[in-house]
Amino acid sequence: MKVTGLQIYWMIAIMDLGMALIMTLSPSLQAAKQDVWLSILVSGSIVLIVTLLVTNVANLYPGQTLIQFSQAILGKFVGSIVIVIYMVQWYTIIPIVLRQFNDLVEILLLPATPKLAILLIMIALVVYVTYSGGIEGIARCSEFLGPIIILMVILVLVASIKNIEMKNLLPIYVDSGAIAIIKGSLAPASYLGHAVEYLMLAAFLSIPTRKGVPYAYWSVITAVFFVFISVIVTVSSIGVNLSPKMWYPFFEMTRKITLWGFLENFDPFTIVIWICSVFIKLAIYLFITAYGTAQFLRIKNWRILIWFIAPVMVGFALFPKNVVEATANYLLNYWVPIALPVNMLGLPLLLLIVGKIKQKKTQSA
Q1: Which of 200, 215, 221, 216 is nearest to 293 (CA)?
Q2: In a structure prediction context, what are the per-residue pLDDT tens digits for the chain, which is 365 residues long?
Q3: Burial code of 38-50, b = ≥16 C-beta within 10 A, e = fewer?
Q4: Do residues 318 and 158 make contact, with C-beta atoms less than 8 angstroms apart?
Q5: E-strand stretches of the chain
Q6: Cα separation values, 269 from 108, 116, 257, Å
Q7: Could you give the maximum distance between any two Cα atoms of the chain, in Å?
Q8: What is the pLDDT of residues 299-330, one digit of tens each?
Q9: Residue 246 half-sphere exposure, CB side, CA atoms within 13 Å?
Q10: For the CA atoms of 277, 196, 53, 79, what is the dihedral angle to 10 degrees?
Q11: Judging by beta carbons within 10 Å of its beta carbon (0-12, 13-18, 19+), is residue 297 exposed, middle or buried?
């Protein structure tokens, strides 16, 4: 299975963009208020550091996945612990994203539809593309859906220009301060930090691993740029008093759009962005989870694991009682305080330092 650099670009960009736009604006607004755009700039800096670390680690062992080179760098025991830590991330995020998808669809579109029906439709699509096409099939879908998602975001932003009031972004810094801005940056950084999956995806590049690095950087830059612009437009359109109280400020912003007195209801554009992003993100994570688990347990046919993982993930997606447990609790209790500093920053840094030391020793010998 091989993917191109451009496909890597679209996969990471889609994972970053859609989820960050919909799921992280509210906690960032609550922390930084009208200075949330500064928080996004801080988030972008954090994510670029994550990208720097993971691309350098992947370059140490071209053609190998995280499962393989973590044990080569840290030894079998410690490397296995690192793998398990990443697997916790992979296995927990699939049911959470599934439930977040269900909650948004249920609240905004299909309030009378049973949860299980919504979940089964999405997981069936994800299982189909992952089982039939593997990472190549997912990459082709990303290459097709990526430009559509970007176009939808641009259309929403352009259509919102009429509602922009720049005074809603004032005053700058005075009302929040550095601590609040940094606090507001953590949620977006954690969702924009999916460049960490490059540790698994780089092994499938059809070009030398080092030539895939620019695609990883540009995917992150693209996602951060559009989130940055979207935050400015959202806050300046809705205002800082109302937007922090909304679950989905970007979605609510589209409901205010009216062009030429008759063209309105731009909600479907946001829904397309959301559904496409969730689909690609779930497919990538299902592949990574199945393939990584198979490598770790030395199972030859990784596709078999899809039939075990998918139904279990659907079952766990039904556990959260409401949208607060599915979104806020997971984000604030695991994804931001643990996944961001440990999985996205700490462990890649550890792998890079130890890997460089081992490489130098090998070269000296």
Answers
A1: 200
A2: 789 999 999 999 998 888 788 777 888 888 888 899 999 999 999 999 999 999 999 999 898 999 999 999 999 999 999 999 999 999 999 999 998 888 888 877 778 788 889 899 999 999 999 999 999 999 999 999 999 999 988 988 888 888 888 888 888 888 888 999 999 999 899 989 889 999 999 999 998 888 899 999 999 999 999 999 999 998 888 888 877 777 778 887 877 777 766 566 667 777 888 888 999 999 999 999 999 999 999 999 999 999 999 999 999 998 877 767 777 788 888 999 999 999 999 999 999 999 999 888 877 76
A3: bbbebbbebbbbb
A4: no
A5: 258-259, 263-264
A6: 13, 25, 12
A7: 75
A8: 999 999 999 999 999 999 988 777 677 777 88
A9: 22
A10: -170
A11: exposed
Measure the CA dihedral 245/247/249/252, to 10°: -110
Handedness of CA 184, 190, 193, 196 (dihedral sign): positive
Q: What is the pLDDT of residues 88-104, one digit of tens each?
A: 999 999 999 998 888 88
Q: Cis peptide before 147, with omega less than 30 degrees from 0?
A: no
* Paired residues of 3 in beta bridges: 205
- Decide: helix, strand or coil at residue 258: strand
User: DSSP of 83-120, one letter per residue?
Assistant: HHHHHHHHHHHHHHHHHHHHHHHHHHT-TTS-HHHHHH
Tell me which amino acid residue 287 is. F
CB count within 10 Å of CB 321 equals 8
Q: Which two tokens stand for residue 323?
A: 């949208």
- Work out the end-to-end distance of the chain between its first and last CA atoms, rounded to an integer number of angstroms: 35
pTM metric for this prediction: 0.93
